[in-house]
Structure formats: C-alpha cells, structure tokens
Design brief:
three-stranded mixed β-sheet; 6 helices
C-alpha cells in the first residue's frame, strides 16, 4: 500500500498557487497604464515654470506619459528631459507600484537680470536662466558690456549683493564696463557708485555702507554725482 505524503502535496500546491499569483500580478503590472503625473515644486513658491510646462516635458514616444504602459517608462530618460530645461535646477522622477508617476522639481533661482540686447537671468550658480512668462523676479538689472558666455565677473558681484541684506535691499542696477570694472546704482538715489575691480570687494562694500549711513544721517546723499570705492582705504565723492 502506497503511503501518501500530504505535506509534500501541500507544498507543491502552495508553490503552484504562488507562481500563478506572481504571473497574474506581473501580467497585470505590464498592462497597467500610468496615471496623470503629480508635480511637486521644492523651495520657493514663485513658479517660473508651471505644472503644465513640466507635464509637457514628460513624454514617451511623442505622447504624454499618462497614456503609456508602465513597463515602457524609463525614469532616467524623463529626468534627463526635465534637467535639460534651462528653468530647472534639479528634477527627480518616481514611479509607485500601482503606476503613479510623480516628479519633484527644484527651480533655478535668479539673482540678477541682464538687460542688454538679450534679456535673461543669471542664477545663483552663475548660469544662464531664461525669462519666464509666468513670473518676473525682482532682482537688480545688469547693463553694460555683457557676454552670455563670460558671466563670472558680474556674477561675483551679483552674488555679493544677493548675500548682503543691505545691498540686496538697495542695489537696483549693476553695470559692467568695457574693462570689466563694476559700477552700481541704488534705490532712491541718482549717483553712480564706482567699485572698480572686485579685488578687496568686502572691504569696498563695508566702506560704502559706512559712507551711506553717514551721508543719510546728514541728509546729503542727493548732493553727490559719483561715489568712488576704487581706493580701499577711502571713499572719494564727487558733488553735482
């Protein structure tokens, strides 16, 4: 008489059931269509690029990603498309098990706006950033001799302005001259400030702050046409 090993049969049945469920789940997963992407902007609330703009970048085979099967989605390819946009600093794309697609977007942050023959922003890393139809940043204008491929000099001064509460409040225009020296203008005053080269820039800025506070207190700011910071040990002013 043959003795039946029911435990062995149970194991075989269990393996078969698990295999069937896995195959069924895998088949359903392949057929799953991606839903509408969820766009999350990190950092500032000012949107230079909109959710609609981002969604238009999320395409596969020239079709919106929301119409594609989950199995053909290449997240690296989508991230590359987003990171190639000049408005975007960094982007990451995620896919959930049920086919939900989400993107986290960090926008570039402008610190100055070039206003010459071409108009564009300089971002906080010294790079190019196009103007936005959706939002205009209140940052200093940059004028004068500007080469889009050589922004380092004017960026260095714009960054100093951005990082200083006093300058950020008052500086409205930065001018780069033909010899790469820097001038600037401040809010509610019509005099020009000559910075010269950016050597010992911190000391020049401190000299200007001391001058401004004294002249403001004495109510004589409007009597000057030029304020010269080129000499690190003194501020030379030319009256109107």
């Amino acid at each position: 008489m043959i003795k039946i090993n029911y435990n062995y049969i149970k194991v075989i049945i269990l393996i078969g059931v698990v295999g069937f469920l896995f195959a069924f789940s895998n088949h359903r997963n392949k057929d799953r269509i991606v839903g509408e992407p969820s766009i999350n902007f990190l950092g500032e609330n000012k949107l230079f690029i909109t959710e609609t703009n981002v969604s238009k970048l999320l395409i596969v085979n020239q079709e919106p990603v929301s119409k594609q099967p989950k199995e053909i989605i290449d997240l690296n390819e989508l991230e590359f498309a987003l990171n190639s946009n000049p408005m975007i600093k960094e982007a990451q794309v995620f896919m959930s098990v049920n086919g939900g697609l989400s993107a986290e977007i960090e926008q570039k942050r402008p610190i100055a706006r070039v206003n010459t023959n071409a108009s564009y922003y300089i971002d906080d890393e010294g790079g190019f950033m196009p103007l936005s139809y959706n939002y205009a940043a209140r940052v200093p204008l940059v004028t004068g001799n500007i080469d889009k491929n050589k922004l380092q000099n004017v960026f260095q001064f714009a960054k100093a302005v951005d990082e200083d509460d006093f300058l950020k409040k008052y500086v409205i225009e930065i001018r780069q001259n033909n010899d790469n020296t820097i001038d600037f203008k401040i809010r509610k005053s019509d005099f020009i400030v000559h910075v010269g080269t950016l050597k010992q820039l911190e000391k020049k800025i401190n000299n200007f702050k001391a001058f401004y506070q004294k002249a403001f207190k004495d109510k004589i700011l409007d009597s000057y046409a030029v304020v010269n910071l080129k000499f690190d040990k003194q501020v030379i002013c030319t009256k109107k």
